[in-house]
Design brief:
Lysozyme; 3-stranded antiparallel β-sheet; two-stranded antiparallel ribbon; 8 helices
């Protein structure tokens, strides 16, 4: 998997953020590869503005599923379940979460989630609770960068 920086032209702040994200996890545990892939896909999809930017989605998905393709949350009060890297809810994304072949592939999960993100931007909505309740913010600090304020932050424990 190529680095998110290879073959792309981004401003200095975006490049700095990508480096911080790529340094977050140890090589070989899979999460860096998933994060890099997701960042590339979000950037390619035009998610580079101040609102609905790629970095906020990376932080949101970090909170939702910790980049675990097999993550499962059965604790929703309405009886629904959340699945995979981005914690897709069974009520809203039933056909995807019941497609065992697609859910078995982390990159197909990410492709689907990027599509949901692009649709959310178009509709000016947000389907992930970590975005709407502010939980994503602590993960922006985990990645040692605050994209919205364009400045490097010190690492904080989570």
């Amino acid at each position: 998997m190529p680095s998110v920086l290879e073959g792309t032209r981004h401003n200095k702040d975006t490049q700095e953020a990508l480096v911080c994200v790529n340094e977050t996890y140890e090589a070989g545990d899979g999460r860096n590869e998933y994060i890099t892939y997701a960042a590339n896909k979000l950037i390619e999809a035009g998610m580079t503005g101040i609102d609905y930017n790629w970095f906020d989605f990376i932080a949101t998905w970090q909170h939702e599923g910790d980049w675990n393709p097999e993550a499962l949350n059965t604790g929703n009060s309405n009886g629904t379940t959340d699945h995979g890297i981005c914690q897709l809810n069974s009520r809203w994304h039933g056909p995807m979460v019941t497609d065992k072949e697609r859910m078995a592939d982390p990159y197909k999960q990410i492709d689907y989630c990027v599509g949901v993100a692009v649709d959310a931007k178009r509709k000016r909505t947000m389907p992930w609770s970590a975005w709407t309740n502010g939980s994503k913010e602590k993960h922006k600090y985990k990645f040692n960068f605050d994209y919205g304020n364009h400045r490097t932050k010190g690492k904080e424990s989570t």
